[in-house]
Please model this.
Amino acid sequence: MKKKVFGVLLLMETLFLFISALIALCYNEGDLLPFVYSALAAFAVGAALFFPNRHEKGNLNRKDCYIIISGVWIVFSIFGMIPLLLYGTVDNLTDAFFESMSGFTTTGASVLNNIDEQPHGILFWRSITQWLGGLGIMLFSIALLPSFNRNNKQLFSTESMAMSINKLRPKTQETARGILFTYLVLTIICATFYWVGPMSCFDAICHAMTTLGTGGFSTHQASIAFFNSAYIEYICALFMIFSGVNFSLYFLASTGKWDAFSKNEEFKWYMVATLILVVLIFSLFIVNPNHTTSMEMPKTLEEKFRTALFHVASIFSSSGFQSRFCDYDSWGYAFWIPTIFMMVCGACTGSSSGGFKMIRIMICMKNVRNELLLYIHPNAILPVKLSKHVVGFEVVMRTLAFLFIFTALILIGTMLLTFCGLSFDTALGSCISAISNTGPGFGATGPTLNYAEINVVAKWILSFLMLIGRLEIYTILLIFNPHFWNDK
Model:
């Protein structure tokens, strides 16, 4: 059954590779054959796995689901890197895999220094990898393909086990289709707003996909700063904030249930936190006007507010886009703490953003509050509540365990990267950025630089951290547990 599922997923990737091939055909820039060969390779392997096993039926157990979910992101990244190698976008396996993994995990960390020179097909493929990865490869598959039958609920819950997407329809496939439809509509709306501004139709579509996917890949080396437009920066900032919201809330609102927003406590915390952080960054610009040595710095109040809004939206949603003034690495240490907090925290569950997620922050903070109150009232019963619903003790414990593992991975990752020769600030920023799927880090991997100059071992470590972060740790770490492979 696992072979059948992998085959179906590869056939789906083939479809998107052929779409990119059509873009390459339209622009006739030399990347058509790389996409055709890549699509044929994916089709050949997918067909070899699917057709001999197409009549196979049965339920997947939990172990099978973890193997499939972990494996499919690696397999997609492997086939996704083939066009980059064949065309010559990158000239080695490490950079190709890093770029592809960064795309599918919506991290947005890039090794390319010549993005403006890339053909339209390659640029479109980079964007579509982030659009696919933003919502989740398995969710796309369940929504578009009927082949999973009884196994779609198990696969969906495994990939989305930490996302807490409420079931919107009686059937899992209907739920997936509802979320996908919402995602598609928001992407079209975003692209339309971009197109109204100074973006071309192609740029608008590509940036809309990477905005809704909170990936941050751009069709230009300078990112959003290329357009030098206040309008584009405001639109991008707003849609990055929108992309940090649980997509199921948008779907519920489209069915007339607008109170879903007001009833969702995580959404309210996210919006309040965004507002506070924008005010904080804006205030730091005001009280510390000599915050940067860069010649490009916000001068007027409007520029400072726009930069603060864009910076918060970009980092908090884990998008990683860069505007004209967003060289936060040179703003000074006062800006580093809120920036690191936003990287680590991330936005809402059920969104395309990365990070620890707001709902876990809420659970931890409420649990700390209850623990303090128990010192005053030792006999009190103080459950953790979210949106007026009691959170089970096992969920609280799982969240605290997740916090410990998340922190431990950052410390271990930072230590390993320093062993690879990276400075401490570069190692810490890169590690947090990778595991939170944010993109830009600090130091040598800061917002105005990229990951091209770091060594091979560091790139493989960061690729692994990107995958762990996208699948929210447990899915990947479980397969390294010896008990996981014990049939008993």
